[in-house]
Design brief:
By secondary structure, the protein is mainly beta. The protein has one domain. 6% of the residues lie in helices and 31% in strands. The protein has an eleven-stranded parallel sheet with strand order 1-2-4-7-10-13-16-19-23-26-28, with helices on one face. A nine-stranded parallel sheet has the order 5-8-11-14-17-20-24-27-29, with no helix packed on it.
Length: 360
């Protein structure tokens, strides 16, 4: 049993100076907190809330004026008897009081409802410096609504299933990195980021017959695959943006970089070109499965990005930018546990073998 204790200590060593609050709403889950709001109520800025996998959906939560790291097990953890942490939705906001939700992080969670960064009330302030990684979003990330200025969002290695990113034409946006995500089934996938600057859309896969953009401007669009998806700028869907090293295939618009108002073809773009994604049959059928093999084989996308990497999703051999690892949170977890001597005499030690893994 000492191994289990040591593993638990290692699990959150990176937050040594913070408190970790565990939430578990499984029957007989054993946690002090059954819902996320209960843990938020006692947490202080800098704490971590570990939302454990459950057979039940967690209620909507609201985070106000606190910087919290939310961690779940991942959207498809590679372990025996995997469970995911499904959440009905969440709202993150700043009031005019002391404290701030700026700098909060969300990793390894599944959101059935909207994840909202809200500034639409009297005395509100925009929420900034946000990280959203390795989550499933089944509807939209909604950012801003009342003329605020949202900045420094990292949206990385997520699976958007009929979901996307939604802004407001009354707000401003800057320094967004939207990277290494899969967007499936949302039309448009990214919308209402028109008062924007320094928005990077890089190394993503958009598939199904949808429009990618609506009311967007001043984007840098690089190294993406648009598979059946229309990433063009018709009807001012996107304007004043630059496309570099993208591939468009099997869609209504296979040359989106030639479309729209004052958009720029930055070179390296390939139209009507099969990127040779391994799971191309599933993509053509619009299959919903975040663990499909989205890598590319030998062909036009291989090592053809502006950075020398594959166009489309990243599968870096080292570091965290590998879609194959995005299914799990970057935490050690117990993969399997075996009691070596289930029958023992009094005074004899119980031997337990634990196999643990860590996603990069």
């Amino acid at each position: 049993m000492k191994k289990l204790i040591l593993l638990a200590l290692t699990l959150f060593a990176y937050q040594a100076n913070a408190t970790v609050h565990t939430v578990n709403n499984n029957p007989n889950g054993g946690s002090t907190f059954k819902q996320i709001d209960e843990a938020i109520a006692v947490a202080v800025s800098g704490d971590t809330i570990f939302v454990q996998g459950s057979v039940n959906t967690y209620n909507n939560f609201m985070l106000t004026d606190k910087k919290i790291v939310f961690v779940g097990p991942g959207f498809a953890p590679d372990k025996n008897l995997p469970q995911i942490a499904t959440i009905a939705g969440g709202t993150i906001r700043n009031t005019d009081a002391a404290g701030s939700s700026d700098g909060s992080e969300f990793t390894g969670l599944v959101f059935n409802g909207q994840l909202i960064f809200f500034d639409g009330f009297i005395g509100s302030r925009a929420v900034n410096n946000i990280v959203i990684k390795r989550c499933v979003l089944k509807t939209f990330i909604y950012i801003g609504s009342a003329g605020g200025s949202s900045t420094n969002f990292l949206i990385e290695s997520n699976y958007f299933n009929a979901g996307g990113i939604l802004g407001s034409t009354g707000s401003t946006y800057s320094n967004f990195i939207i990277r290494n995500n899969v967007f499936r089934g949302a039309s448009p996938a990214i919308q209402a980021l028109s008062n924007a600057s320094d928005i990077l859309v890089d190394h993503n896969l958009f598939y199904t017959n949808v429009n990618v953009f609506s009311a967007c401007r001043f984007f840098l669009i690089t190294n993406n695959i648009f598979y059946k998806a229309n990433a063009g700028g018709g009807n001012n869907a996107i304007a004043l943006s630059t496309y570099t090293n993208n591939i468009a295939f099997n869609g209504a618009n296979n040359t989106p970089w030639l479309d729209g108002t004052n958009n720029v073809n930055g070179g390296g773009n390939l139209g009507a070109t099969d990127p040779k994604i391994v799971a191309n049959t599933a993509l053509n059928a619009d299959v919903d499965n975040p663990v499909l093999d989205f890598s590319v084989g030998a062909g036009p996308a291989k090592n053809a990005g502006s950075d020398g990497k594959d166009i489309g999703l990243l599968f870096d051999a080292t570091g965290s930018l590998n879609w194959a690892n995005a299914r799990g949170a970057r935490l050690p977890f117990i993969f399997s546990m075996n009691i070596v001597n289930p029958t023992i005499a009094p005074g004899v030690s119980l031997n337990v073998e634990v196999t643990a893994k860590k996603q990069n």
